[in-house]
Every structure is written in C-alpha cells, then in structure tokens.
Amino acid sequence: MSHPIRKPRHSYHHGDLREALIEAALREAEQGGPEAISIKALAKTLGVSQPAPYRHFADREALLVAVTAEAFRQFNAVLRQAVAASSRRSKLSRLAQAALVFGLERSGIYRLMFASQTMACAAEDSELHVAAQETFALLLDALDGPRDLLRERYALQVWASLHGVVMLAQQGLLTGKSINVSREELVEDMVAQTLKSLQSANDGARD
C-alpha cells in the first residue's frame, strides 16, 4: 500500500516565491541568526527545486540583503508603534525600551541586522540601506531640537550605547545583578543623560 508523500513543513504552494523565501529565512534567523540561513535548506523546506531560489536571488548574499531589509522594516514598525503610544515617558525612552525588548526577544534577527557583514556589503541604494536609514530617522525624530549635526551625533551615541546593552545582555554578560540595576534601568539612565545633555547644548546654542 502506497503512502502519500508528505510535503515539508512551511512548504511553498503557490504565489510569490521570493517572499516565501524571505519569510522562511527570517524563521531560520529567528532561531539561529544569520548563520542558519542556507538557500539549499530553504529550497528543501519550501519543497521547490534547488535552482528555483536563484531565479530571485543571485546568491546567498543577495538573499541576506533582502531578508535583513525585511527585518529592519519589522523593527521600524515596532519602533513607530512604541513612539506613537500614549505615555508620560519621552519619545526617546519609548523607542529605546522597544529596541531593547526587540533585541532581547528576537536575538537571532537582531544579530542578522547588526552583527553580520550584510549591511557593509550591500549597495548604498539597496532596500536594506533604505530601511536602515529609516531606523536612524526614527531615532532622530525621538530627539528634540533642530535636525543638525549635533542632534545626529547624540543619536549615534544613543544607538551605540543601546546596541552595547543589547549585545552584552544577549551574551549573558549584563545581568545587572552585581550592581543591583536592570538593563531597562541602564537604558533609562542613558536616555535621561542624553536628553539632559542635548537640552544643555540646545540652550547654549540659543544664548
């Protein structure tokens, strides 16, 4: 008696194979970071021929660019929602805490975005750079004051500090127990110091 052939889980049925590959790659990155993404494995997972993905992506790097761009778009949606939420906290606080949660809860995706060479290798006019620039624009908008080089400098400081907290926490090197402070409190301290310094700089520029 013959048995029906079972298709792989999340197998591709019809529609947009490019989007199906991106979604499947995101699921893999969610579990194992960028290292987990393999075109051969994705083709098997989706139940398509090995050459099929290459009709949409020239190589693995091209796929990673598209996947990372989608990860940034999802990240940006989370940040926009946090900033738009009604709260007595500052916009910068809401954005920074949302970024912290995203980095800790979706560590594989975060590493794909910020701990791989994909961004450095992508063309400056790629969808990845467009999505990443939107992330930085959201951060700039969360800072009060004129959009000038000073504000951009503070935004970079915020991003570098926040990224450090996320990466150290992901590695289990920042529990906060030894100094009796949480990661959230550390981020809030950074936000408060940044806003105070930026306010002083803005006041000084008006004098």
Core attributes:
207 residues, mainly alpha, 9 helices, disordered N terminus
What does this protein structure show overall?
The chain is mainly alpha-helical and 207 residues long. It is 66% helix and 0% strand. The chain contains 9 helices and no strands. The protein has helices spanning 17-32, 39-46, 60-84, 91-105, 107-114, 118-121, 127-141, 149-170, 183-206. Helix 1 crosses helix 5 and helix 4 (91-105) packs across helix 5. The longest helix is centred in the middle third of the chain and has 25 residues, at 60-84. The model is unreliable at 1-8 (pLDDT under 50).
Write the layout of secondary structure elements.
Elements: H1 17-32, H2 39-46, H3 60-84, H4 91-105, H5 107-114, H6 118-121, H7 127-141, H8 149-170, H9 183-206
